[in-house]
Every structure is written in structure tokens, then in C-alpha cells.
From TrEMBL:
This is Pseudaminic acid synthase. Pfam families: NeuB, SAF. SMART domains: SAF. Residues 292-347 form the AFP-like domain. PROSITE patterns: AFP_LIKE. NCBIfam families: PseI. The lineage of its organism: Bacteria, Bacillati, Actinomycetota, Actinomycetes, Streptosporangiales. GO terms for biological process: carbohydrate biosynthetic process. InterPro entries: AFP_Neu5c_C_sf, Aldolase_TIM, PseI-like, PseI/NeuA/B-like_N, Pseudaminic_synth_PseI, SAF, SAF_AFP_Neu5Ac, SAF_PseI/NeuA/NeuB. PANTHER family: N-ACETYLNEURAMINATE SYNTHASE, PSEUDAMINIC ACID SYNTHASE. It comes from Nonomuraea glycinis. One of its GO terms (molecular function) is N-acylneuraminate-9-phosphate synthase activity. Gene3D superfamilies: Aldolase class I, Antifreeze-like/N-acetylneuraminic acid synthase C-terminal domain.
Amino acid sequence: MIEIAGRAIGPGEPPFVIAEMSGNHNGSLERALSIVDAVAGSGAHAIKLQTYRPDTITVDADGPAFRIGQGHDLWGGERLYQLFERAHTPWDWHQPIFARAREHGLVPFSSPFDPTAVELLEKLDAPAYKIASSEIVDLPLIRLAAATGKPLIISTGMASIGEIHAAVAAARSAGCDQLAVLSCTASYPASPAESNLRSLPLLAALTGAVTGLSDHTLGLGVPLAAVALGACLIEKHVTLSRDAGGVDAAFSLEPHELAALVVESERAWQSLGAPVLGPRPGEREGLRFRRSLYVVRDVLAGEPVTELNVRSIRPAGGLPPDAMTTVTGRPFTRDAPLGTPLTWDLL
């Protein structure tokens, strides 16, 4: 169990839904604030930013190493510097975005990508930190974020077991005692077939941390399945409208879809219940209407039981249906009107 901004997060609590703004503000602070408003209206619990400058995450260089592969669905051929310049959230926007979120009761936090980002977020009293999948190998950054004493969430996209272990060890060594790890497929958009959600219990066992999902697939099916496998946090990118375009719009949820995720993820969590078999409390009324043997025609004492005067019908209260072969031919001990449950004392 961990706690972020006073909210408990863990197996005994409804899923914590995080809306990732990323670059879907499309370079407009007004749009960024509108996204915050829409996230609040959806019922999600947190909004997350990404805190970097193009110059803190890469350099303004060209060449194959600094370009997205031509075959990429969204950003094929684009230079890294240009992509990050287009997608980054200016640092002077962070304060108004955090303030708007807090006005709505949302939890605002971010993924820092370098020490200067951690410094900025500390000034804004960020209540938690998220380590992005690509940064899981940046152990100094993980130690720095963990040393703030804030809860830490680590995405594990692309990571090997050894890299996950090293990241968790780095966080723990720096004093982090509130840790969550997120299963993630770091492709954009991601295929559901590559989600491998059955690894969620393995991730929990490996790390001893609260687990969740950072999801880049389309729709709601994958995160809802993750809840069934123990995910306690769900992160999805969000935009006002996919049709309006944007860096991540193609695989982002619109506000009404985010609202559905909030409702359905909690419903999925509620449905998990306990590992027990047998009647549920809500089935008590239904138990009254199981089939049993009833007198279906007025009979007199001494008449034998036949298929014409006794049948298996609803409701319950009589002998079980399988007793029919045993009671057939036995005489009634007293008169019994239609609608009388057949019991041993009548025979």
C-alpha cells in the first residue's frame, strides 16, 4: 500500500486513475488548462505532466541516431529535438497547471527527466514522481527522485528483469518506502497482443511493490483486464479530441472515454471479491425460486404420487427434483391442495 496526496493506493482500494497530458496541449496553455478541467470532470484522480526541455533530454543534432525510424506509426523520420520541442510542457506552465488541478481536487505530478526538473517540481511541492520507461536505466535520476521522500512510480516498458531489479534497488537505497511499478509496452500506439498482462503478478512478486499499468493501447479493454490481474494504478494519455491532432492524440482517450475508464475500472475492481465459492448475499432471494417438488393438483389422502399430481416447479421449499423417482407411487398421508410443497411428512 502507498499513499499519494492522502489517497491510499493498493489492492484493497479502487484503482487510482492517472490522466497523462504529455504533449496533447498542442503548444497552448489554454488547451492544457482545458485538459485539466476535462480530467477533473471525468472523475479521474490525478493528472500527470512530463517535465523536460528539449536541451535537457537530447541535443539539437541530426543523423540516424537522432531520428525516429521511418516506419514509426506517428513520428516516423522526425528528429528527436524537433519532437521534444513540439511535445514539451514549458516550465512556466507547470505552476498554473498544478494550481488548476488542485482547485479541482486533482493530484498533479510529473515525470522528471533530469535534476533540474526535480528541482522545479520540488518547488511546486509535487506529491509524487514518475520515472518514465526510457529513464528506468538512469539510476542517478531514480535515486534523486527517491531521495525527496515522495512516493515513486516507475514504468517498466522495454526493461529486462535485471534493469527492473536495479531500478527498484536504486529507489530503495535512496530511502523510497512508497514504491509502485507499472507494466508498460513502450510503443505508440501499443498492440494489446504485446501487453502480456499475465506478467503483472510476476512483477509484484519480483519487486514487492504496488503494481499498475501505463497503457498506450487503444480503448479500455487492456486496462480493465489489468485490474483483474492486480493493477492498482492505471495511467492513460488523454486529449480533448483525437480529431484535433497532437503528438499523442492518436492513442489518447477523450474525456468521455476517461470517465468510462474511471467507472468501469472501479466496477472491475469491485467484481474481484474473494476466492470463495457458494451463494452470494445478493442471491438470497433467488434461492427461494429454485425448483423443487410441489403438489400441482389437489390430492386426497391415500392417492399415490404420480407425474400428474407432483412436478418439479419453482419455487423452492419442497423435496429436491431428483427425489421424484423415490417418491413416485408412495401414498399421501393426508389431503394436499395444489401449491403444497412436497415434504416427507406428506408421504
